[in-house]
Amino acid sequence: MKFPPLPLLVLDTETTGFVPGIHRVIEYACVRIRDGKIVEEYEQLISAEGDEIPPYVQVMTHIRPQDLEGQPTFGDIFEKIERMVTPDTIIVGQNVKFDVAMLRGEGWDLSDAQAIDTAMLASLVFPELKSYSLGYVSAALGLDHTPKHRALGDVRATTALFSKCWERLASLPAEDRSALAELSKRGSEGYRRLFGELVSLPARPQSRPDWLAAKKSSPSALVPSPPLALPQPQTGTVQLCEEPLHPQFLVSVIPGSDARTWIAVKNLDATLRRLPPGGEFTVLPSPDSFLSGEARERFLAQPQFTADELTLACKLHLYAPHLKSDLPLHGEEYQAWTAKLACTAESTEYLERRNLAVNGPVLVNHHELLLLLRSPSPVIPSDAHIIVDDASMLEDTATQAFGWTCFLATLRAAAQGETLLTKCTDLIELWVEKTRSGLDLKYLTEADLQTTEAGQIRRLIGEVLSTKLLPAPRRALEDLLRILDAANLPGRIVWIESFIDGSKSVRSVPEDVRVLLSEILYHRFPVTLLIPQHSAEWLTPILSGDERSAVLPPVSFPFANVTLRMPLDVTIDGILGSPEGKTMLLVSSKRTIEDLYVKHFEQCETAGITLLCQGFSGGQSRMQAEFALADSPAILVATPWMYETMELPPATLDRLVMQVLPFDHPSHAVFSKRGQRYRNPFNDYTLPRLKHRLFRLMRTFCRHAKDGGVVDVLDDRLRTKPYGKEVARYLESILPSGNEGRPKPSGEQLRLV
Predict the structure, then answer these.
(1) What's the confidence (pLDDT) of residue 359?
(2) What is the maximal distance between C-alpha atoms in the chain?
(3) CA 488 to chain CA centroid, nearest Å
(4) What is the pLDDT of residues 332-346, one digit of tens each?
(5) What DSSP assignment string belongs to 227-267?
(6) Is the predicted pLDDT of residue 388 greater than 70, yes or no?
């Protein structure tokens, strides 16, 4: 391993949780590096002094309460470990902010120490990786990571990762190394010293290394399909096309569309990754996907950078992006992009791309389509045929598009170095905390908006908006100003929400989106909605009833070779004890996932079974990456809501197991309020949304499944409840048991061209 000639201390902790001062450090390890060589390795278990070790921590780390008996306290080792840090030492760690915060909770304050985060550094120089978690990076790069989930194993892997990052930085041409060194002068001292060492390295060839041109790998694109031309309906008639489960369907619709067609999809980036290259269509991303040239210059002219802003500035230099997807963003760089670099609907870069869209066909996401439809100036030609894929998600997308949202994290990211905006953000956070009174979800009333604090916020927002402000915080403050106006309460659902990671938002959405959809879409354009099979009568959340509608004949399309089972004798314990190849296990809640993790992780580890669990195996991108990389047998446990958005390579999964039917949570801020509009909320609203979700889950599995994949639905309500039997019949209608004797569409059919 190679290191720069700097005094480095690579450290890691194992803890009883994530809250500094509340949870305790129970293991500390570090490696000291001097003059480019490892000179010391240290590891110590630490007494929790009577505090409990949560079961999931015991399982993850293999540290038991008895292991800490007789171990020194943190105070006992403090003098020794503190001596390892001299004034010129640079602290190195994977997500180092967490470890520094936890150590501060134990009384060792390293807040002012020079620090480097290897996760952020890896994202700068390994653009091809799918995740920057230590577990995935170790597997992908072949790093020594033993023992896993222990402080010393993590330190060893972090040390090796830092060395790999240094090697790639050193491979840059002198011009790039000098540019990074110049940028780092406005960042923290640790990065300034690290990048400063680059300019003293021997000269290298002027050609840039190949890794700069690498792209994050993604699921393989589907093969081209024969085009399928959907007829254009008359304006005012909503045409309904029942979508088959086969993943090739949209791949056929796009090339079958003419230049007047606009196709809206739920997730544009994911759709593009699945499409074969060379398609003849225009892609119109949302404005915040584009880099604003004006914002870039303003950002790079900042006198100071935070650590995350510095790595983002370095990426702007190395990768010269036009779109957000051109960058390997990680961590809080996303907030910095949104707050300081993204285009608006008025930005030149976005308008230039939008002007190309007049000659279609155009591929756009749902949210952007709805915003364009509400634009005061016409954008979409009046004779355009608008095809909405995933129309069962249109209610949720329209709720977001027609809503007002203020994420406090966006304001905080933009407030760096801005005194007035910082003051405003502080006041908003104080009002949010006082108003929600410790509740995770608090609906706002007229009384909440008429407090003295709310009035002060309105006045201060007006003052901030009169200054020159970046687009993202301006939108957030303008939305909050609308939310705080009591005159806007009627006909809307308004609430404060606190999330598990501590972030908070203030939101307002329409009680009913149907009228808005009719006004801006159904009555103005020829519209085709691609809907789940046999669901034309379940569209009341997006069709008000005053529109004409017509259902197209069934589409003649190949069936996905996937089998449905509703077994009586299959248990979760049995699945986890003896998985079939690669299995996706969907369960009802995060609490259920924790129970399964605690009960089964160690036995799976002993048996050589990879077990990844939502909430305990990192974020979604990490789990996807590690699961795709893992050998069989492997199990990924997640909620249905997360799985619906997952991207895995085709032919990854052998089996999908659904423990319970994925009903909407009854306490969801919008769902609970919307259901009150219906005479029979369960039959008229809850059950149709369940069937739509089941279709989407089955379609997602068809994208990921091997030929002959199996779906097991274990919920006993399929047999014991009348509504369960109805759901079972629906599942069998879209995914019959076995592939022999599948019902063939009767009568007239639409066929591939």
Answers:
(1) 65
(2) 83
(3) 31
(4) 999 899 889 999 888
(5) ---PPPPPTTEEEEEEEPS-TTHHHHHTTT--TTEEEEES-
(6) yes
CA-based radius of gyration for the chain: 27
**Tokens standing for 629?**
């990389």
**Number of neighbours of residue 565 by Cβ within 10 angstroms:** 14
Q: Cβ–Cβ contacts within 10 Å for residue 34, how many?
A: 15
Kindly list the domain boundaries of the chain, sorted by start residue. Answer: 8-170, 228-287+348-402+513-557, 404-510, 562-734
741 pLDDT more than 90: no
The candidate with the shortest Cα–Cα distance to 30, out of 76, 70, 85, is 85
| Cβ 565 vs Cβ 640: under 8 Å | no
Tokens for 248, please give them.
């090739």
Do 70 and 49 meet the contact criterion of CB atoms below 8 Å apart?
no
* Amino acid residing at 653: L
Edge-to-edge strand list for the sheet holding 562-565: 562-565, 705-713, 653-658, 582-586, 634-638, 610-613
For 377, other C-beta atoms within 10 Å of its C-beta total 5
Element (DSSP H or E) covering residue 41: strand 37-45
Cis ω for the linkage preceding 649 (within 30 of 0)? no
- Residues with Cβ within 8 Å of residue 80, at least 6 apart in sequence: none
Average pLDDT, the chain: 92
Q: How far apart are CA 650 and CA 656, in angstroms?
A: 14
In this predicted structure, what is the pLDDT of residue 633?
96
Q: Which CATH number applies to 8-170?
A: 3.30.420.10
Burial class (CB in 10 A: 0-12, 13-18, 19+), 205: exposed
| Cβ atoms of residues 241 and 552 within 8 Å | yes
Q: Tokens 């949210």 correspond to what residue? A: 367
The CATH number of 562-734, from 3.40.109.10, 2.40.300.10, 3.50.50.60, 3.40.50.300, is: 3.40.50.300
CA end-to-end span of the chain:
58
CA distance 138 to 158: 9
Average pLDDT over residues 514-536: 94
How many Å separate Cα 197 from the centre of its chain?
35
Instruction: Sort strands 504-510 and 492-498 into parallel, antiparallel or unpaired.
Output: antiparallel
- Mapping DSSP to helix (H, G, I), strand (E, B) and coil, where does residue 290 land? strand
Which class is domain 228-287+348-402+513-557?
alpha beta
pLDDT over threshold 50, residue 747: no
CA-based nearest residue to 148, from 18, 30, 60? 60
86, pLDDT greater than 90: yes
> Are the C-beta atoms of 388 and 374 separated by less than 8 Å?
no
Q: Which residue has the tokens 């720069």?
A: 4
How far apart, in whole angstroms, are the C-alpha atoms of residue 139 and residue 626?
A: 8
Average pLDDT over every residue of 251-256: 90
Per DSSP, 448 falls in state G
Report the distance separating Cα 559 and Cα 702, nearest Å: 10
